[in-house]
Amino acid sequence: MRKNIIFAVLLALAALPLQAKDWTREQVAAAITKVNDYWQTNNKAEVRSFWDNAAYHTGNMEAYKLLKNEKQLDYTRRWADHNDWSGATEANPAKWKYKTYGEGKDFVLFGDWQVCFQTYIDLYNLALSQGGTAEQNYFMVKRAKEVMHYEAYSKANDYWWWSDALYMVMPVMTKMYRLTGDKQYLDKLYENLCYSDEIMLDKETGYYFRDARYVYPKHKSANGKKDFWARGDGWVLAGLAKVLQDMPKDYEHYQFFVDKFKRLSAIVAKTQQKEGYWTRSIMDPAHAPGPETSGTAFFTYGLLWGVNNGYLPKKEYRKTIERAWTYLTETAMQPDGKIGYVQPIGDRAIPGQTVDANSQANFGVGAFLLAACEYYRYL
C-alpha cells in the first residue's frame, strides 16, 4: 500500500511542469558573461554586417546596457568599424534592390542588410550620453539615415516579404523615429507591416508563415498541418517587443502593435512543449522533433519583455517563462558557455536535420543574451 502511494506521488511529480531553479540576478549575470565571453573568445569581431552577425550584436548591446562590460562592448565597436558603419555598400540608389534574397552590395534595401543599423544607432546614442557631440559621431548613423530615409519616403511598401524582416527592420524604423523625430518612419513601419500581414499572417492563429511560399494549404507540414517555423515567428515576437520599446504611446497605430504583440504572445505560450522549448515546426512537433534554441530564446525574450513592461500578466505567463528558462540554461547552455541546439541558417523546419548540443550560431547567442537580460530584470 505504502509503495503504491509513493509511486503515485512520484508519477504526480513527474507530471508537474518544469520549474527553473531558484536563480538569483547575480547568477543570471554570471551566465550572460560566460556565454558572451565564450562567443567573443572563439569568434573574431571583424566579420561582415549581414543579418546573422548583426543579430548577435543586438544581444550584445542589451548585455552591455545591463552589465556595462566595456570589453564586450569594444567587440561590437570593432565590428562596426570593420564595416564602416554600413550594411550593403552600393552608393547609387538607382541600383538598390530588395525584392529577392541577396547578399551582394546592391541589396541595400533588403532587410538582412539593415538590422546592423539597430546597433549603430544604439552606439551613437551611447556616445552622445557619454559626452560626445552629434557632429563628432555623425559617421555612426550617416549610412543608416541615408538608406532608411530613402525607404521611409519611397512609394513601395512591399519591403518585408519574409517574417525575419520584422525583426531586422521594424526596430530600425522606431529607432530612426527616436533619432530624427520624423513621424514618417512610424507611418512607413505601419504601411510595410500591413503589406506583410496581407501575404503571410495567418488570421486564425496570429502566427506568421515564414513567407508566401509556406502559406497553408499550399504548403503543409509532414502531417498535413499549418507549418509555422519557430525562428521565423520568434523574429516577429522579438521585433514587436523592440518596436513597442521605442514607439510613442500616442502614435495613432500604437494599439494595433500592442494588440498584435498580445495575440502572438498568447498563441506562443499555448504551443510550448512541456520541456520548455518550441519545436521547429510549431504546430507539428513530429515534423522536426526535438529542442531548438533560437526560436525558443526569441520567444522567451518577447514574453519576458511583455511581462516586465506590463503588456502581459505575470500570473498567466510565469509557467511558460520558467519552463523556457529551464530549457535555455539546463539544455541549450553548455558548461563552457556554448549555446547549443541552434538550427542552422535556413528558412523552415527541415525533417531529419540534426540539431544538437554542438549546433551553435551567432544569432542564437544573440537571442539567448536578449532573453537572459530580460530574465535578470524579471527577477
Explain what you see:
- The protein has 15 helices and no strands.
- It is an all-alpha fold.
- It has one domain: Glycosyltransferase.
- Helix 12 packs across helix 13.
- The radius of gyration is 21 Å and the shape is globular.
- The termini are far apart.
Features:
globular; mainly alpha; disordered N terminus; 15 helices; Glycosyltransferase; about 375 residues
Helix content: 55-70%
**CATH C-level category:** Mainly Alpha
Mean pLDDT: 95
| Span of the ends, CA to CA | 43 Å
Q: Structural class of the helix and strand makeup?
A: mainly alpha
Shape: globular
Might you state the CATH topology name? Glycosyltransferase
Using only CA atoms, what is the Rg? 21 Å
Tell me the fraction of residues in β-strands, as a range. Answer: under 5%
Annotated CATH architecture:
Alpha/alpha barrel
Residue ranges: pLDDT <50 for 5 or more in a row? 1-18
Characterize the largest beta sheet: strand count, sense, and whether it forms a barrel: none
